[in-house]
């Protein structure tokens, strides 16, 4: 069956062809003009961007003739939120392992409150909480970057953390997975995200919510490793802090033997691997044995597809009784898993191949044996015997104490800095803040590398700083070829006419269900472009008028992806005992 899908075209301000042409090798392909290929190598471009602007000495502090204000002084971020500071908040930390009931108890308090907000790290979690509250006859709005579902009479909101409103006053607020904001820990090898991919980029959103939400009661749910830092940060706010500690509600048993072959796979198993390619190889290996069918979950799947795959796996009435997944299962999905099987305890994190951290192992392993599920006892093991010692030691170890929280200057600070230095583009402004920000010992500047790549693009366009900032903080995957070019086309068209019609950028074409994982990846990238359009349309409604068209096309992408996942049998299987598997590092 064929579906209508949009196809990127036109030419960017940099001479980049936007045509995506279907051919024998690819469903969608860009064609670069030769003179522009070097420009889109973002890593090279951003490293040399300063040379383009010259090497003038800039007044980083704003202490020159135009201002006496030190814009780079970020030592007191709690003062950025005067509404919250006028309250003496009661802050309750609910800390414990996965499957300990900490979020459940916080949500019970939210249900009883006269008004409130839930802030989660993922759209999946925001969806789940909104559904739960409305089912409990507590009218609740759903607000994420890509959707706004308002319920009549609602005094409660379920939002992704970036959408937290720091100008409203609530009776009760929850920030879930609070440790996702905090990346720096005692051990050098643990200076990484704890539970969520990209938290070094998104951490400042959680810190903003922690400092800025004005609620009588603020409930923080997460890992015990966050307690000392949160207590220290809140000393200057005058808030009362209480810590509630939880124990796991159901047993988690680390097994002493590995899973040696496909014949050892059983209903309720989840095989965890960290490569898209290996996810599909393992899926095919298991299914070829003829005993099980597999659902799959990984980060770049659209949220709607992840939810559908999880629902299918949880449904005991169908044949999809095994899950093959990445660490994307660690948050946002309720899964009826009996046993977690690690294919490896190493992953490529975008920079290097490394061992999983203690926190990552505990987060993933803890999903097995969810309380009151059909599997009351969770089990965890590995494919390879040599990985078992690290697995067992990690499960016995406490998570390393978190030392610093992510921080980033507000738009107001960036705007005032720009007024003091009107010749600087947003890229240079971000660079100056990163290099010269003054911070207290509790904070680090969040990783803004991808923001700076986006800023390098929009600085070439005749846009106001506010518009540039909006594009830069949008959820674009700037390192994805198709997503990055869709982003550039949206920004270019907006700079020219202030109206971006989807049909002027994307033209109707007919595609079938993807035939290979490569074609699937390209379709996922198209979904990201459409998702970006929807995000922009919620903020610039008059300028991005085709939200319904984009949403419809996203639905088509979801259907095509689902059909691929149901029909895929195209990858050669690999034996479970293969040592070659352990050498595969990247997606």
UniProtKB/TrEMBL annotation:
Its EC number is 3.6.4.13. Gene3D superfamilies: 1.20.272.40, 1.20.58.1080, P-loop containing nucleotide triphosphate hydrolases (3.40.50.300). CDD domains: DEXQc_Suv3, SF2_C_suv3. GO terms for molecular function: ATP binding; hydrolase activity; RNA helicase activity. Its cofactor is Mn(2+); Mg(2+). It is found in: Mitochondrion matrix, Mitochondrion nucleoid; Nucleus. InterPro entries: DEXQc_SUV3 (IPR055206), Helicase_C-like (IPR001650), P-loop_NTPase (IPR027417), RNA-DNA_Helicase (IPR050699), SUV3_C (IPR022192), Suv3_C_1 (IPR041082), Suv3_DEXQc (IPR044774). It comes from the Eukaryota. It catalyses: ATP + H2O = ADP + phosphate + H(+). GO terms for biological process: mitochondrial RNA 3'-end processing. The lineage of its organism: Eukaryota, Viridiplantae, Streptophyta, Embryophyta, Tracheophyta. It is an enzyme of class 3 (hydrolase). PANTHER family: ATP-DEPENDENT RNA AND DNA HELICASE (PTHR12131), ATP-DEPENDENT RNA HELICASE SUPV3L1, MITOCHONDRIAL-RELATED (PTHR12131:SF1). Belongs to the DExH box helicase family. Residues 257-415 form the Helicase C-terminal domain. This is RNA helicase. Homodimer; in free form. Component of the mitochondrial degradosome (mtEXO) complex which is a heteropentamer containing 2 copies of SUPV3L1 and 3 copies of PNPT1. Keywords: ATP-binding, Helicase, Hydrolase, Mitochondrion, Mitochondrion nucleoid, Nucleotide-binding, Nucleus, Transit peptide. One of its GO terms (cellular component) is mitochondrial nucleoid.
